[in-house]
Every structure is written in C-alpha cells, then in structure tokens.
Amino acid sequence: MFRSFLFYYLKFLAAFMMLFVSTLSFSQITPFEAKGKNYSASYEECMAYYYDLQQQYPAIEIVEIGPTDAAYPMHVVLLSSDRRQDVSKWHVKNKAIILINNGIHSGEPDGIDASMLLVRDVAERMQQGNTSVENVALAVIPVYNIGGCLNRSPFNRVDQDGPEEFGSRGNGQNLDLNRDFIKCDSREARTFAKLFHWIKPDVFVDNHVSDGADYQHVITMATTQHNKLGGPMGDYLEKIFEPSLFAVMEQYQYPMLPYVNAWGKDASEGWFQFFDSPRFSSGYAALHNVFAFVPETHMLKPYAQRVDATLKFMQVLIEYCQQHRQEIHVIRDSMLNVQQQQTVFPLQWTFNPKISKKSIIADISTRK
Ligand SMILES: [Zn+2]
Fold first, then answer.
1. Contact 147, 171 (CB under 8 A)
2. Which CATH superfamily includes the segment(s) 41-339+352-365?
3. Which of 139, 287, 310, 367 has a Cα at 20 to 30 A from 57?
4. How remote is the CA of residue 246 from the centroid of ligand 1, in Å?
5. pLDDT of residue 231
C-alpha cells in the first residue's frame, strides 16, 4: 500500500514538474510561432515576452530609455555574455556592439517578431557558454514606433502578404519617424539620440519591409551608401563587409539584392541608389561613423518567409561581427583619425551621371 502510495505520489510530482517545465518553455514561444506564423506580436505581447525572457536568462536586461509620443516609454533589450549588463564595459572589452531597431514603420513588423526569436536564440547560446557569440553585444529596440504599433488593423498596408494584423506607418502624432532623425520633432527621435550616444554602436540595423516593386528576392538591402560614407569605412563597406554578408545570405538560400527603388525605368538604364541623408536612421548612423544596414523584405512574400529572412540576416551579421570585430574597430578608429585631420568639409554635391550610372550598373550586374 505504502509502495503504491509512493508510486502515485512520485507520478503526481513528475506530472507537476512536467507541467512546470512546459509552462516555462511555453513562455519562451513567441506569439508569431504560437499562432501560425502569420501573426505579429502586439506591443503588449512583445514586451511581456521580453520580460519573461529576462526572468529566464541572466544575460538579458531590459532598460527604459525615455518617452515617446505614445503613452509608453521606449525600451531597449541589452544582451551580452556578461552576467550584468554594463555598456561601458562592452567598450572596454572590445565587443562588437550591434544596435537593432524594429517597427519604426509599425506596418512593417518583420523585425519585431524576428528579433524576439533572435534574442532567445542568442541568450540561449550565451547561457550554454557558446563561443560563437562571446564577443558581441546586442542592444535591441523591441518596438520603436509604439503609437503606430498600438494602431493595429488588417488594412494598414492592404497589398502586403501578412501578417493578419499589424500597426500603422505614422506614430502617435502621425509623423513618419524614419524622416525625423536630426530634425527631432518626435519624442522618439530625441530618446533615440540619447540611446545612440549611450550605446555607441559599431553597427546599426533598422528592419523594414518594401513598399511597391515586385521581384523574386525575399530580402533586399539598403546599405548606407559607401561613397557617401567615404574614407576607410566606405572602402571596407563596399569591398569587404557588404559582399561578405551577401555571399553568406546566398548560402542560406536568401540571396539579397540592393534595395530596389524603381520609378518605371528599365534596370539596364541604371537606377538611383537610395540616398540615406541623416533624417533617415541609416544616414544618422553613418553620420556618426557607424556601419548601417536596412533590410527591406519583399512585401509580396509570405510573412513567415520574411521573418525568417530577417532573422537569418541578423544572425549572419552577428557571426560576421563576432569574427571581424577587431577589424571593424580598427577601421572605425582610422576613419576618426582621417576626419580629425580633415580641413575641407563638403556640404553640397552635384550629380555625376557618368560615374554614378556606371557604378549602379556594375552593382546590378555583379549580383544575382
Ligand atoms: Zn519602412
């Protein structure tokens, strides 16, 4: 009788423990995964998920940065193999620091859901002492345009292939936040400036979705213009950094294309590259000698595929930065040295169609 009682008691205990374990693992499943991969987390679900992860992983710390034009403040999720996150120590330890922005246009939520998967993946690897993420530090903005994210509807971008419901482009004041860096009409831009100068990233990513053109690729890339960036950073970006990312993404079955900004002309005549002046996030980053990448997934591809491509790009970027962090730091330092000795500062440019057309066509013809 006693043995039988003990048996049932242990069985009950095991069942209870299993329930506990499954509750824990359930808390790590993103709403995107749980609801069929055509679903994007709401603002509340997104933040609740990150707070659950913070409980689970000591490598994660969520910090409130400052106000936005919505009722909620902006947060950043810090992540490194250090047990306690201290951004100044990231610099002392020579980590490659990557700042990732999501949902600046909340109708383009791919990065919001992809980053939730990314942070879980990297935190798990850090927990296991995996050296593949030892020398990188991540700062992830879960949602930049909170006001837009709260304004959910299936009809904000009707041509887009999913998710079933998502936010709007404008923020709480209906400002386009990706035209507001430098100008700072929004509280978001002022809070971002504070965050940016605190984190002092080496690399910046701002996740987007395209808006119009049709083509085969799932993901395109609006890298900051190397010729505008100039100096050692411009050279490195054009000849080494960007081609490496394109090559590895191709291995992952997500070949990329430079961001397509087409206005009806044939590609063989050349298209203008996207000019990221400092009112755009990548232009703002470039102004501070930070390498900037703007993934633009293709709006006409299914949501699950777009999220996966965005996640893959961020993983590939982390892998590159982990392996080449010293190189990245040396190049950025040398850029600063060049600028400190600079005596002439161009304030205006004139367009040279001969050179520009040649470089754009070369760009298109060397990439699939
Ligand atoms: Zn966008």
1. yes
2. Zn peptidases (3.40.630.10)
3. 310
4. 21
5. 92
